[in-house]
């Protein structure tokens, strides 16, 4: 791979501008070369086109693709063909070879001989992470849709890529199968250092998997950054949607066996969540919906709501003539993690709320994501 003084180690940098048929693309973003970066937006906004440009399947003259310091494309004419880019590509449909066993499908793209001696991703590790070890001697014809897709992901991983590209890998699966495969994708994110660029139009997948988000619309990037930052930005559509929520990565502080409650800490606050035991220090992801957060100016009296935090309103935006979304920074100093509160204009006016006003946020419900190993 070529490197130049302008390369960006530990960063994915992609920018493509041009026309493909009648579709105009002018999209660029940078993201850490680790974790999951989700390209999110409605169908037809250009997500797959960007992914195909990263893969070298589409070529625009005005394009840059720099993966962790390796230049795959640059405006000076540098352009690595797809077969020379160390990437894995997982499509919507698992295209397995029907005449080969699962084991042979998995090994089909794996480096052989000396090239495969020091593979960073081992066969046994991949089959264990994806739960396909019991399937190795089967024919793909005898697999469920979810099993087939897990094998396709495993095949992509065993090609020893520097980047994994996933184009709506769950969209062809039913709801139950999606919920079965999501934990496997979380395990990949948590246990492998491989960066993943993941396309979806399903916000639930973004909230479960993504560390970074690239928000797209009509061939352009509206915003790019950490998931929680984009969720809590009232100028973006994520914060004003009816199902708007903020996803926070928390740390397990304690477990109360008498009441079955986990204590989770986040910058500026802590949350008590009904759950099974979890090791102290483990990271757990939570989701807080804007309609589950109410605000008060004074500390409330005894209540069935366990999660109460002081905070400060840092921004707000009218959703329509009757409702407002407020962004609250948790903690008595108003410097902590941010949550959204969707409230009526009547409540806003009667409580005399506004930017920089100190409040107490009552969180009626906290959705807890699975822990590692669940």
Automatic annotation (TrEMBL):
Query: PROSITE patterns, from UniProt?
Result: ABC_TRANSPORTER_1 (PS00211), ABC_TRANSPORTER_2 (PS50893), MOP (PS51866)
* Pfam families named among the record's database cross-references: ABC_tran, TOBE
Cellular component, GO, one term: membrane
- For the keyword Glycosyltransferase, the answer is no
TM region positions: none
Query: Is Cell membrane set as a keyword in this record?
Result: yes
UniProt keywords (A-Z) are:
ATP-binding, Cell inner membrane, Cell membrane, Membrane, Molybdenum, Nucleotide-binding, Translocase, Transport
UniProt-recorded name of the protein: Molybdate transport system ATP-binding protein
Task: Give the organism, scientific name.
Answer: Roseiarcus fermentans
């Amino acid at each position: 791979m070529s490197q130049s003084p302008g390369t960006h180690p530990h960063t994915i940098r992609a920018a493509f501008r041009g026309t493909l048929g009648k579709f105009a693309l002018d999209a660029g973003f940078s993201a850490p070369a680790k974790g999951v970066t989700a390209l999110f937006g409605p169908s037809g906004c250009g997500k797959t086109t960007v992914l195909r440009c990263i893969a070298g399947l589409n070529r625009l003259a005005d394009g840059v693709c720099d993966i962790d310091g390796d230049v795959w494309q640059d405006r000076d004419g540098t352009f690595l063909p797809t077969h020379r880019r160390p990437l894995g590509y997982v499509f919507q449909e698992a295209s397995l070879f029907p005449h080969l066993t699962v084991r042979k499908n998995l090994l089909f793209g794996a480096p052989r001989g000396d090239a495969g001696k020091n593979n960073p991703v081992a066969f046994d590790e991949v089959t264990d992470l994806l739960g396909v070890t019991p399937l190795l001697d089967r024919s793909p014809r005898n697999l469920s849709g979810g099993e087939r897709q897990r094998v396709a992901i495993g095949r992509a991983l065993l090609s020893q890529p520097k980047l994994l590209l996933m184009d709506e890998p769950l969209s062809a699966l039913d709801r139950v199968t999606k919920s079965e495969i999501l934990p496997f994708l979380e395990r990949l994110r948590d246990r492998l250092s491989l960066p993943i660029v993941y396309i979806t139009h399903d916000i639930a997948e973004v909230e479960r998997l993504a560390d970074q988000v690239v928000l797209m619309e009509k061939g352009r990037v509206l915003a790019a950054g950490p998931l929680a930052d984009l969720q809590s930005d009232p100028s973006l559509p994520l914060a004003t949607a009816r199902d708007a929520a903020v996803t926070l990565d928390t740390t397990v502080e304690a477990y109360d066996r008498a009441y079955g409650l986990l204590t989770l800490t986040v910058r500026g606050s802590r949350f008590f969540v009904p759950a099974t035991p979890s090791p102290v220090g483990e990271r757990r992801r939570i989701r807080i919906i804007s309609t589950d957060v109410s605000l008060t100016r004074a500390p409330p009296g005894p209540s069935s709501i366990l999660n109460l935090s002081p905070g400060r309103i840092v921004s707000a935006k009218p959703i329509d003539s009757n409702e407002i979304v407020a962004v609250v920074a948790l903690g008595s100093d108003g410097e902590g993690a941010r949550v959204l509160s969707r409230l009526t204009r009547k409540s806003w006016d009667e409580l005399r709320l506004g930017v920089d006003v100190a409040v107490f946020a009552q969180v009626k419900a906290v959705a807890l994501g699975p822990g590692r190993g669940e």
